TrEMBL record:
PANTHER family: CADHERIN-17, CADHERIN-23. It is a single-pass type I membrane protein. Residues 58-126, 127-235, 237-352, 353-453 form the Cadherin domain. SMART domains: CA (SM00112). It comes from Pongo abelii. Keywords: Calcium, Cell adhesion, Cell membrane, Glycoprotein, Membrane, Metal-binding, Repeat, Signal, Transmembrane, Transmembrane helix. GO terms for cellular component: adherens junction; catenin complex. This is Cadherin-17. Coiled coil: none annotated. One of its GO terms (molecular function) is cadherin binding.
Length: 580
């Protein structure tokens, strides 16, 4: 490695002598403090100077900010091995000393300063590629919209870093082009020719160019025309009262909703409302999030509350617009509101994971079936015991440890669905605090109700002797859940012996007609049994008794037997009038 360096130095010396650099004076001389200017980007292995020293000096040593770029040979040739970069280091402070054969300094060290001269090798750059600004409608020409700033890493206050700004394009060109100007050297963007109107064009897009003598860069500017802000936000009420919170209320909780309105153009910077806490919260415990569509403010907890340091705080809010108010308009007391925050030092009750728990099961589930579960957590980590409240029908029980809910009696959708009960979570130990949530059990229907008559048909009769066949219309129903098209009952006579005298015909899904087949009836009581089938899954069939007396009232009732054997054995003596 030493041999290689020595050969490199020897080659440089030969080049130095061949080009005339070895002449005493300009390119060589005694060891003394010197300053050398060198342009960045110059080729490597360039000779800077040859230092000479008197015996017993036989070699030289270079120290300081060499950055592994600057070298000095045994013959005193100072050179650099690669191109310099002013933006990396503008000045290199070096020291050169002359050494004897034993490596002992016999002359120096002396300071050598390398000044790196700038060339234009850096492109000007904006701080960001896209900017957004706004201008109020009816603003006068010359009003400032904002200032764009670009930077050039080349040497300041030189032609290499001297920047010019210009507008390349405006879109749309309505009502004309050249509505904006930018100061050539300062970068200030201004309204140029005339006032703007939001109803004409609500938004403009500009392409801006910044350039030095060799390079150029572009950025884009979006300019929004906004409504004049001549209306202040006004709170719906000035005092939101007292709010009491436990000191361990969760960070992020919304504790209060506030509302102010602004009469300026909706969804603009003039009507948008930002809420700030101005008094009573020096610790920054509270914040306000604004709904951009409604301007509703949601007061949230940003930092934990502390009973010991701030048990009572008088909080004051202020509602402001992001856009400045026009001259002569100022915010007043209508833009402020307050509330008192009271922090309590109390044990906190268990917290349910949901406000309402919901489950769905079939109404015919077996007793002992798990129908749902609830979960709660005690902030202090205590165990929780669950219980039910409001189980008026006695259908449910809850595992007091796990929160699992089971059926303990037959369920009935027709009696109540959804079935609503309250679940109570009580901490075990401590202060035995509890909290309540809702459990809603939705029961899905099964076909478990017999068809029956929709009402009590009283006061019906046939006159004897019949002059013509007679008929009566009746309606059927049941208590099961039906699709949107309603029930579809089918009707038939209870036994074959009735078919000689009577017939039943379906009118629609709920109505049928009972008619006499002839007029040759004796004057006595007749019992007519009719089957009504609901066509469900499984199908259920009810038996309706239509006892009648010619020249008398026809009484109607439902016979609750499900089996056909009971239909055949029904006797007239069993029939009784229906009562409401």
């Amino acid at each position: 490695m030493i041999l290689q360096a020595h050969l490199h130095s020897l080659c440089l010396l030969m080049l130095f002598l061949a080009t005339g650099y070895g002449q005493e004076g300009k390119f060589s001389g005694p060891l003394k403090p010197m300053t050398f200017p060198i342009y960045e980007g110059e080729e490597s292995s360039q000779i800077i100077f040859q230092f000479k020293a008197n015996p017993p000096a036989v070699t030289f040593e270079l120290t300081g900010e060499t950055d592994n770029i600057f070298m000095i040979g045994r013959e005193g040739l100072l050179y650099h091995t690669r191109a310099l970069d002013r933006e990396t280091r503008s000045t290199h402070n070096l020291q050169v000393a002359a050494l004897d054969a034993n490596g002992i300094i016999v002359e120096g060290p002396v300071p050598i300063t390398i000044e790196v001269k700038d060339i234009n090798d850096n492109r000007p750059m904006f701080l960001q590629s896209k900017y957004e600004g706004s201008v109020r409608q009816n603003s006068r020409p010359g009003n400032s919209i904002g200032t764009l700033t670009a930077h050039d890493r080349d040497e300041e206050n030189t032609a290499n870093s001297f920047l010019n700004y210009s507008i390349v394009e405006q879109t749309p060109k309505l009502p004309m082009d050249g509505l904006f100007l930018i100061q050539t050297y300062a970068g200030m963007l201004q309204l140029a020719k005339q006032s703007l109107k939001k109803q004409d064009t609500p938004q403009y897009n500009l392409t801006i160019e910044v350039s030095d003598k060799d390079f150029k860069t572009f950025c884009f500017v979006q300019i929004n025309v906004i409504d004049i802000n001549d209306q202040i936000p006004i709170f719906e009420k000035s005092d939101y009262g007292n709010l009491t919170l436990a000191e361990d209320t969760n960070v992020g909780s919304t504790i209060l909703t506030i509302q102010a309105t602004d009469a300026d153009e909706p969804f603009t910077g003039s009507s948008k409302i930002l809420y700030h806490v101005t008094k009573g919260d020096s610790e920054g415990r509270l914040g306000v999030d604004t709904d951009p569509h409604t301007n509703t403010g949601y007061v949230i907890i940003k930092k934990p509350l502390d009973f010991e340091t701030a048990a009572v705080s008088n909080i004051v809010f202020k509602a402001e617009n992001p856009e400045p108010l026009v001259s002569g308009v100022t915010y007043n007391a209508s833009s402020s509101a307050k509330f008192m925050l009271i922090v309590t030092d109390v044990n906190e009750a268990p917290q349910f994971s949901q406000h309402i728990f919901q489950a769905k099961v079939s109404e015919d589930v077996a007793i002992g079936t798990k129908v749902g579960n609830v979960t709660a957590k005690d902030p202090e980590g205590l165990d929780i015991s669950y219980s039910l409240r409001g189980d008026t029908r006695g259908w449910l029980k809850i595992d007091h440890v796990t929160g699992e809910i089971f059926s303990v009696a037959p369920l009935d959708r027709e009696a109540g669905s959804p079935y609503r009960v309250q679940v109570v979570a009580t901490e075990v130990g401590g202060s035995s605090l509890s909290s309540v949530s809702e459990f809603h059990l939705i029961l899905t229907d099964v076909n478990d109700n017999l068809p029956r008559l929709a009402k009590d048909y009283t006061g019906l009769f046939f006159c004897h002797p019949l002059s013509a066949p007679g008929s009566l219309i009746f309606e059927a129903t049941d208590d099961d859940q039906h699709l949107f098209r309603g029930p579809h009952f089918t009707f038939s006579l209870g036994n074959g012996s009735l078919q000689n005298d009577w017939e039943v015909s379906k009118i629609n899904g709920t109505h049928a007609r009972l008619s006499t087949r002839h007029t040759d009836f004796e004057e006595r009581e007749y019992v007519v049994l009719i089957h009504i089938n609901d066509g469900g899954r499984p199908p259920l069939e009810g038996i309706v008794s239509l006892p009648g007396i010619i020249l008398a009232v026809v009484f109607i009732r439902i016979k609750k037997d499900k089996g056909k054997d009971n239909v055949e054995s029904a006797q007239a003596s069993e029939v009784k009038p229906l009562r409401s």
